[in-house]
Write a structure and sequence with these properties.
- The chain has one domain (about 10-135).
- The protein is built from five helices and two strands; from the N terminus they run βααβααα.
- The chain has helices at about 20-25, 35-50, 70-85, 95-120, 125-145, and strands at about 10-15, 60-65.
- Strands 1-2 form a two-stranded antiparallel sheet.
Length: about 150
């Protein structure tokens, strides 16, 4: 029996934090310059999850077309939601499935300030990118050992 996962039209970000997302894609000194908003969302999500920083989204602004996510990105979001909730039955009912995307938005909401701070932590161009790369490489090494 095949289970179909409910997919929203868009993923949202908190309206008051939208400038942080936009600056990361529009500033020439950002490693996300010229990149799609979904890439900033996924990195903010990953940082929020890694640092257990999940924040309720207040005044949600639908900004990221869901269809722009790859299947791999969708399954990362699904997997994290299942782990965070400790409930595989999230996959069984549409109402529960909606919770998957809310969790993704909450982790991205919690992680965007962290990501922004890392990128702009120093006046030295490139330091934020180096710090982010070091942190992510360290996390990958930890995961490889498991």
């Amino acid at each position: 029996m095949e289970t179909t996962i409910f997919e929203p039209r868009e993923l949202g970000i908190q309206e008051s934090k939208r400038p942080l997302f936009k600056q990361l894609t529009e500033d020439k000194f950002s490693p996300f310059y010229g990149r799609p908003l979904k890439e900033v969302f996924m990195c903010a999500f990953a940082l929020g999850y890694k640092r257990s920083k999940k924040e309720e989204v207040i005044k949600r602004k639908a900004d990221i077309r869901f269809e722009s996510l790859s299947e791999q990105q969708k399954w990362i979001l699904i997997s994290v939601a299942i782990k965070a909730m400790g409930d595989i039955t999230l996959l069984t009912e549409e109402e529960k499935q909606r919770r998957i995307w809310e969790i993704a938005e909450q982790y991205a909401n919690g992680g965007i300030k962290l990501l922004h701070d890392i990128v702009y932590q120093s006046g030295y161009e490139g330091l934020g990118t180096k710090l982010l790369e070091d942190e992510l490489r360290g996390e990958l090494k930890t995961l490889e050992k498991k």
